[in-house]
Amino acid sequence: MNEHEAWRVVGTPSAGGILIISDHASNRVPDDIDLGIDPPLLDQHIAIDIGVAAVGQQMAEQRGFAAFQGNVSRLVCDFNREEQQPAAIPIASDGHAIPGNALDHAGHEQRLDRFFRPYHAKLAELLGKYPPALILSLHSFTPQLESHPEQKRPWQVGVLYNEDDRAARVAIPMLEADGLCVGDQQPYSGKLLNATMNRHAEAHGRAYLGIEIRQDEIANADGQKLWAERLIRICNDVALKLQA
Fold it and tell me: Gene3D superfamilies, alphabetically (predicted)?
């Protein structure tokens, strides 16, 4: 594993392969950062996309697949935001204040220099050096938000995209054929939140598949194995169809 404070690479990236990108794969908080929150919150969705690290790591064991994963909690630095957005270093998430992120300008810039900018620089380097046939943007979502528990999310998986829906249009019928409840631009729209893919995929014409898995689907080892195998198959099929 190739690792930095802000990112880790699992497996061996290859030109013409598939790169799995998970911005929110870790709940790690460096020892010198105090977020000022209750520690149990670090095991919840506001801190990490539950299950995606294990799914990506299992997929990266397959030849032609590699995973690029965020190596700190999204509460330390949210890589799936525009750099200039306040949410890149959130002061609140799903109704919880993050007092340790109430930084002055110098502190905000220091956090971006330490995590956000190295993450995106390394990702740009990998994509330039090893152009993939397909990027898989892998996230997970909660069955409902803590701040809006009445709003249930029935989709087992969502497919997100902004302007480039090439891979989405191929993948959605494949996921439905597996008997899944599939959300097309659910539980939210990729036209509203797609920062990493907008920057590294759409801006360069790179094909990508944005996948959000409901957390209870990948909360244990059996579910993680099932989804890793499913996504290996689907990503290979999508990549082949896009190249045809």
Answer: Zn-dependent exopeptidases
* CA dihedral over 57, 63, 65, 66, signed as positive or negative: positive
Between strands 157-160 and 182-184, the pairing is parallel
- 127-183 per-position pLDDT tens digit: 999 999 999 999 999 986 655 666 778 999 999 999 999 999 999 999 999 999 999
For residue 216, count CB atoms less than 10 angstroms from its CB and return exposed for 0-12, middle for 13-18, buried for 19 or more: middle
169, β-bridge pairs:
none
> What residues does 65 pair with on adjacent strands?
18
Query: What is the pLDDT, as a whole number, of residue 244?
Result: 77
What share of the chain in percent tops pLDDT 70? 97
Q: Which run of H or E residues covers position 22?
A: strand 18-22
Residues with Cβ within 8 Å of residue 171, at least 6 apart in sequence = 159, 209, 211, 234, 238
The answer to whether the beta carbons of residues 22 and 53 sit under 8 Å apart is yes
Q: Which CATH architecture has domain 2-243?
A: 3-Layer(aba) Sandwich (3.40)
The domain segmentation of the chain, as residue ranges, is 2-243
Maximum pairwise Cα distance, the chain: 52
